[in-house]
Amino acid sequence: MSKLAVIALGGNALLRNNQAGTIEEQEANTTETLENLIFLVKEGYNLVFTHGNGPQVGNILMRNDAGEKQYGIPQMPLDICVADSQGGIGYMIERCLINVLRSHKLNRNVLTLMTLTEVDPNDDAFQNPTKRIGKILSKEEADRLSAEKGWTFKEDKKSPGGYRRVVASPVPRSVMNCEVVESNARAGTIVIAAGGGGIPVYTDKEGMVRPSEAVVDKDLASSLLATQIKADDFYVLTDVPFVYANFGEPNQEKLEFLNYADTLKYLEAGTFGEGSMAPKIKAALSFIENGGRQSIITESKKLEDKSYGTKITMHYDEKDLHKYE
Q1: Which residues, 6 or more positions from 127, have their beta carbon under 8 angstroms from its beta carbon?
Q2: Is 218 a catalytic residue?
Q3: Which of 160, 187, 210, 229 could pair with 182 as two cysteines, CB 3.0-4.6 Å apart?
Q4: Is 40 in contact with 5 (CB distance < 8 Å)?
């Protein structure tokens, strides 16, 4: 049987920090990323892609705000905005992927699936919103929107003096329709699912599915989906070729191979940035802990070159240990 892999596309796979965010820019970035992943298709992998939506869903919210002010169009809640971004980004990835496959004369069906992610309405995250969405604003703009909308803003660590809206990011409990994802993927269709971490919902006391005003972490949702569909490998694509201990510090250390126990020690010691690499590490560990074969964290351009990327497994392989000799 073909191996099944879940690939979580990082934000820079679609939109770079120094870009305005035009569709031309996003399509070019997406195509470049997918070109770097086509070797997995050639190797016979069955694939499921997930993706983030942080800048895009934030822009949708701001368009909501502008539309209400200028044209009196009622604003849509956050779950609808996540759904909008999931559909739009999924369509873009699907079309770009079809074109990349055709350019390589590869015949695979591609399917974008609107995906709901179930969360706990009593999750502590609703009392402490931390997930940053939307553009970086000045303090004056952030204060105005906070007063008008009741939104919460926090200073962006990467941009001193800049502020971004923060919303709750509850832990995902289940990715709905995972059976549909798995059956299609194992039949050879490349599936795009759980975009933006999935549309957050919860089940009420009457058993009805209700919307949740939140954003689910893309990497945690991707890891959960990978576990639910019994994937072999889980790839987390980011903007660095390796995971580093004490990243950016004088004692920075490249971590090429890690087992579960050592990774957990590093995580608990605060070695990884809480707002950057730590969530990816947690997602990778969750997949391994729940039966996954390996998690690999790297940048898309380096994925095909096996000398790059941090590989996390439950136990060290003998060949991996020789790397440290």
Answers
A1: none
A2: yes
A3: 229
A4: yes
Would you call 274 exposed, middle or buried from its count of C-beta atoms within 10 A (0-12, 13-18, 19+)? exposed
Told to judge if 131 belongs to the known catalytic residues of this protein, a careful annotator would answer: yes
Rounded Cα distance between 60 and 82, Å, is 9
Report residue 154 as tokens: 């926090």
Task: Indicate if 309 belongs to the active site.
Answer: no
Picking from 220, 281, 292, the residue whose alpha carbon sits closest to that of residue 255 is 281
Taking the C-alpha atoms of residue 186 and residue 194, their distance in angstroms, rounded to an integer, is 17
Distance CA 322, CA 10 (A): 31
From residue 197, give the alpha-carbon distance in Å to each of 1, 46, 54.
28, 20, 10
Q: How far apart are CA 8 and CA 196, in angstroms?
A: 10
pLDDT in tens, 122-158: 999 999 998 888 778 899 999 998 998 888 999 987 7
As given in the structure block, the two tokens for residue 198 are 């999935």
Would you say residue 325 has pLDDT above 50? no
Torsion of CA 156, 7, 175, 91, to 10 degrees: 80
For residue 324, what pLDDT is reported? 46
How confident is the model over 12-61, as pLDDT tens digits? Answer: 788 887 888 899 999 999 999 999 999 999 999 999 999 998 888 888 98
Say what the pTM is.
Answer: 0.91
Q: Which residue in this structure is represented by tokens 């039949």?
A: 187
Choosing from 29, 46, 131, 292, the catalytic residue is 131
Residue 165 exposure: Cα atoms within 13 Å on the Cβ side: 24
Within the chain, what is the greatest distance between any pair of CA atoms? 67
Reduced DSSP (H G I as helix, E B as strand, rest coil) percent helix, strand, coil of the chain, to 5: 40, 20, 35
Task: Say if CB 222 and CB 178 are below 8 A apart.
Answer: no
User: Annotated catalytic residue: which of 36, 52, 280, 311?
Assistant: 280
The answer to whether 183 touches 164, Cβ cutoff 8 Å, is no
